Amino acid sequence: MIYVGTGESDIRGDVITGDGVFKSTDAGKTWRAVGLADTHTISAIVVDPKNPDVVYAASMGHVFKPNAERGVFKSVDGGKTWKKILYVDAGTGAIDLVMDPKHPDVLYAAMWQAYRRPWTLQDGGPGSGLYKSSDGGAHWTEISRNTGFPHGVLGRIGVSVAASDPNVVYAIVQAKGGGVFRSSDAGATWTRVNSNWSLRQRAFYYMSIFADPTDANTVYVPEVDALWVSRDGGKTFAKLHTPHGDNHIVWINPHDPKLLLEGNDGGATVSTDGGVTWSGDHNQPTGQFYHVALDDQFPFHIYGAQQDEGSFEGPSATPAGMIPLGDWRPVAYNEATFIAPQPDRPSITYGAGYFSILRRYDQRTGQFREISPWPEYQEGAASNQLKYRFGWTHPILFSAARPGELLLASQYVLKSSDGGESWTRISPDLTRDDPATQLPSGGPVDLDQSGAEIFPDISALA
After folding, report:
1. What's the predicted TM-score (pTM) here?
2. What is the CATH number of the domain that holds 384?
3. Is 332 exposed, middle or buried (0-12, 13-18, 19+ CB in 10 A)?
4. Band of pLDDT at residue 291, cut at 50, 70 and 90
5. Domain Sortilin N-terminal: where (predicted)?
6. Is the same domain home to 217 and 325?
7. Which domain holds residue 401?
8. Is the separation of the CB atoms in 248 and 43 below 8 Å?
9. How many Å apart are CA 46 and CA 220, to the nearest integer?
10. Contacts of 232 (CB under 8 A, 6+ apart)
């Protein structure tokens, strides 16, 4: 029996909502919906190992508005009916949920006060905290105020129980005094064992922790640049170099802990030697394309930028009757860009990167050239600090009426008639230019300004 929760709980501005919980009783051959569709985001599912009809689901709810479909839910009939068993308030959801495998009535739930707007993220607040139940969710106690846990405002929290010794509980905590915390008495007291910022950067997007089920001193933390591992109870961590960045989740085989299954923004990858080597991630259909462009060749070529995998182009047909992987080639420039092939020379493409990056790429020579109308790169800046508000994905295209005219959108429309060597602004600010939507994003614990919250901007141009 398998349960799957849908919807993204790493709440980026382009979060995709789900349809609740699905269940398979034939090892994944067929599936059916079993409720919680209106929660939008299922962040974790745990199943009673002694009774598969007893299942718990954690939900962040509707992250763009306050709502009651947040918290921890329980079903005792295999998903036919659900009961909400932990709820803080309409602005706080459940981001993580784990079970003591030896005592399935013991649960730990991480609650996270967070919401999204197109222009900002609120990450943390008085609703955030870590809770424990010892009776299958009938009663809960907040344990994030216990001795040793960080004081003040809390943000996102990840939690894990060591199956080999359930008294050992790990938490990775977003807070001013955050880090990795360990409890040796099932959450009654805590000790901060590691404060390394590398383990908790961009907390809203990561902050997960996984204890080895066979060794209470081995613990994994997936992050942007690596899967980190500690073998001394969290005191020190070392990098396991996975083949892709933006690492989010890891499964450790309880019968062979060297067998790891790791999930990242490129897909899934497997290690059979404890993370020394990994399988590739280009053997699965996980590409997520932001936009598609076509050119005037025959057969025409297709251009697209895919999340965390760069930008590529390839033919729509070949004499061989198939399109091999080797026929796809890189173009300008980054993961979220519109791509503009030059009408008279499609081997030259134009594409954007983060913030103000804009580049022209010549496929014949392999040369990139920076052509931004404002080449000052202000990484981490708020919208009100930018001369041009180039959104995470902003229009770049050639004019259909004047094929040599390249158009670019920020809050203004800009044009270039010389391949980006010079630019002219041809419109006023076409947005509402509301100062309230241009403030720093994130907080109250940490700011997060990666370019995804640049607003207001022009999102479409034709």
Report:
1. 0.94
2. 2.130.10.10
3. buried
4. very high
5. 21-147, 180-280
6. no
7. 289-437
8. no
9. 19
10. 217
